[in-house]
Automatic annotation (TrEMBL):
InterPro entries: cNMP-bd_CS, cNMP-bd_dom, cNMP-bd_dom_sf, Env_Response_Regulators, RmlC-like_jellyroll. Gene3D superfamilies: Jelly Rolls (2.60.120.10). This is Crp/Fnr family transcriptional regulator. The lineage of its organism: Bacteria, Pseudomonadati, Thermodesulfobacteriota, Desulfovibrionia, Desulfovibrionales. Residues 28-123 form the Cyclic nucleotide-binding domain. SUPFAM superfamilies: cAMP-binding domain-like. It comes from Pseudodesulfovibrio portus.
Length: 217
């Protein structure tokens, strides 16, 4: 997410009282690896260390400074646990962001979705495969597509979408295409070409997540 977008998010939502601003003193743990994830955080002041345990040893994945979003995978995946630990390296302030908070903001400002996905891809590329284990890649794909449809973005470029999703979930483009074909078979999306003969994905179902869960995808 760009600094401008995150500042807009912070100022708009905090001023309306929708977000909880949390103080984290130096050495405070924001969340632990293995704990249940139910919110993301926006760092507005201070410094946060993101780390995990790899083969019995601590591995630092990132040192975050304002303005940064972290813990964001909790907003996209069901039944997931935290894949890293977040600790304040100095006195810090963070905004607690629930999935409902994020979706409400994006309904009002659909353009922010592209920035959110950029953050996801950038963050995930810098961590290890172990730290990126998710309960279901298929469900993760559905959640991201559902986020697009919720914001009214019903048409996506095929090649770019496949590449972004494969990079995000550290899997092959072929595997992502299998999931997309499964959704197409259910009639939830269609693959075609636009007026410029560019291959695209058309999302047919605005409440894709609910539709997929009903079909037990």
């Amino acid at each position: 997410m760009t600094i401008v977008s995150q500042q807009a998010l912070q100022m708009k939502q905090v001023s309306r009282g929708n977000y909880l601003m949390r103080n984290a003193l130096k050495h405070n743990v924001i969340f632990n690896e293995g704990s249940k994830g139910d919110a993301a955080y926006i760092l507005t002041e201070g410094k946060i260390e993101i780390s995990g345990v790899i083969e019995g040893h601590k591995k630092v994945f990132a040192i975050l400074t304002p303005i940064s979003i972290f813990g964001e995978m909790a907003l996209f995946l069901d039944d997931g646990v935290r894949t890293a630990t977040a600790i304040a390296l100095e006195d810090s302030k963070v905004i607690v962001v629930t999935k409902d908070d994020l979706e409400e903001f994006m309904r009002e400002s659909p353009k922010v979705i592209a920035s959110i996905i950029t953050v996801l891809v950038s963050r995930l590329k810098t961590t290890t495969r172990k730290a990126l284990k998710v309960p279901s890649i298929g469900l993760g794909v559905v959640r991201i597509l559902d986020l697009f449809s919720t914001c009214g973005k019903m048409e996506l470029k095929y090649d770019a979408t496949v590449k972004t999703l494969s990079d995000t979930f550290l899997t092959t483009p072929e595997k992502i295409e299998q999931y997309l074909l499964g959704l197409a078979d259910q009639g939830l999306l269609a693959v075609g070409r636009d007026q410029n003969d560019i291959r695209i994905i058309r999302i047919r179902e605005r409440d894709m997540l609910n539709a997929v869960m009903q079909n037990k995808f």
